[in-house]
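Reproducibility note. Readers wishing to regenerate the assembly model reported in the main text can use the exact inputs given here. Chain order matters: entities are listed in the order in which they were concatenated for prediction.
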Amino acid sequence: MLYEAKNIVKRFGNVSALDGASINVKAGEVVGLVGDNGAGKSTLVKVLSGVVQPDEGQVILGGEERYWGSPEDALEAGIETLYQDAALAADLTISANFFFGREHLRPGLLGRLGVLSERRMNAETRESFAQLGTQVPDPRRLISTLSGGQRQTIAIARSVAWAKRVLLLDEPTNHLGAYQKTQVLDVIRKARDQGLGIILISHALPEVLEVTDRIFVLRLGKLVSEGPTQSYTPDSLVRAITGLTV
Amino acid sequence: MPGVQSRQFVEGQAKERREQGTFSRLAELLANQQVLLLGFLVVMIAAFSMANPRFLSLASFGNVLQDWAPAVLLAAGQTFVIITAGVDLSVGSVMGLSAISAAMIGRSLNEGGQPPSIAIGGALLGAVVVGLVCGLVNGVLVAYVKLAPFIATLATMAIAAGTTLVITNGVQVGGAPREVSRIGSSAFASVITIPVLVTIVAVGIAGLVLKFTRFGRWTYGIGSNRFSASAVGISVERHLVKVYMISGFFAALAGLFVYFRLGAGSPTTGLTMELTAIAAVIVGGTSLFGGRGTMTGSALGAFLVTAVISGLILAGVQPNWQQIVVGMLIVLSVITQQVTTRRKL
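Running the prediction on these inputs yields the following structure tokens for the assembly.
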């Protein structure tokens, strides 16, 4: 296993958001994490990305137990997260967003003074997008001038480009049109082929059934079902999520 | 001749595109608040010169520069803060406290028989430390205690203003080495004094940092989307503390400017200057919601606000109208901002 969370418990006051939840992903694999609203999907992702510290349970990366004190710890270990409602800074350019927090500086004295190398960042942004086959406008354009779909595509491309080992995607196709959804799924497949371990959280069950290799189902903070994607039908997946036998 | 036709068509399209380019560039230029600002400045200077020809003299330009310098210093620090979607209401009071601290340290070193260089050095250091400490307090309250910037800096404003009155009893602090006012008044080209020169250099450096460095990039990014900044691993809290310390540092420079100009410390230094500084930044096109703004805009904005005030005085308008005009300028520029951003979306 590349990345694992085992028996995670997380309480917020009297509410237990996670009550013994587990998930794991191999390198070069897409794993789906599904469940109803309030099942604990987002909390589990936050545990995996270091935003939330679990009360109990283990987080294991490459066979080694790890503790994330902050999102930076997880980022440094090569775990990249795309949060729900893409976190781009609308007033910055595409390339500034792409390199946000990891800016290239000029060589020499200017770099030591913190001066940015815009040209290098623009060029590398263009290159990364081309590699992923994403159509993007000029990297010098402001995010605020782009459509919602374009923004999401850029956000996903950014997390794929920076992910070293694991990519966590929280509802990446939310608010997207049909064509953009297929683009996003293509990017996910490409990232998988590059050897990343990908955890996909989504409400859109047809997508989950289409792109994932295995599925984990959460209900009320507990893992209630897991298995290869082929073992689920749309109906059986809905039954697992709701717990109702129709 | 299909070939010719299509070539004509392509050329026609290209021409259309060129024309569209020129047009949209023109529209962009008009939507650019700095260009609007420059136009407004030109019109205003022309109007004031007609009302009173003395407005267009070197002497009155020198006077405007003397008022502009403390305003632009405060505005420079304020620009960083407002770009992070914050506000620093304490700058006027911190400016006053810094000026008074400089004056008291300068006096006690001077009267203690120290050479002027030591007395002036002590005054400079004292003021800067006061400014940085006030900025640190603001930054910690905003970033770590999570107070709204408005409340945190309102508290510091009250504390700094109160401290100034307590330590001076409301009386001017004299006893500075004579060199202080000599430095403050010796001028190149009869208008550029040493403190004005220092102001231009300091604001220039601040502008370069904002535009070209990673520090500036993070400042814009945090103001634009704070969550995004922390998600990519930037320590937003630490950065905010630095930003408020920059504002405090520039408030100290503004206090020092007045100290050198008067050759003494006045307890009323910086009174209502936070209003002027915020007006300059907003007039200069920086968004109160964060993420947008430029140092050039703030420098122009500060010039506009101070030139309006001295122009009105020269035109024979009662000085009491100043605050009203500054208030109207703020309203006008916020409306301009809203109209231009709406057009862009």
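We highlight two features of this model. Chain A has nine helices and ten strands. Residues 1-78+163-246 of chain A form a domain with the Rossmann fold fold (CATH 3.40.50.300).
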